[in-house]
């Protein structure tokens, strides 16, 4: 879907408190999250402007976004499990 907002906190609302805490306490998580949001913004801007890059480059950007999301989610769920115990 074009121009869909993939903001991390919107995709995992049940983990909002963990996202906020990690974003505040963990500089690596914060930097990765900022990179994820910037990449998501860039992709949406390209989609709005009619994707002025070729499909391979757009797919590479989207793959990188997915990889970042997976990495962030693993950190997030690990933190959530530790905080729950």
Automatic annotation (TrEMBL):
- A Pfam family (short name) is DUF465
Q: InterPro entries per the record?
A: DUF465, DUF465_sf
The protein here is known as DUF465 domain-containing protein
Which source organism does the UniProt entry give?
Photobacterium profundum 3TCK
């Amino acid at each position: 879907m074009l121009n869909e907002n993939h903001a991390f906190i919107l995709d995992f609302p049940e983990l909002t408190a963990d996202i906020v805490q990690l974003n505040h306490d963990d500089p690596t998580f914060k930097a990765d999250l900022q990179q994820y949001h910037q990449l998501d913004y860039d992709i949406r801007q390209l989609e709005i402007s009619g994707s002025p890059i070729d499909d391979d480059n757009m797919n590479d950007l989207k793959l990188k976004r997915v990889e970042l999301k997976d990495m962030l989610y693993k950190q997030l769920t690990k933190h959530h499990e530790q905080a729950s115990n």
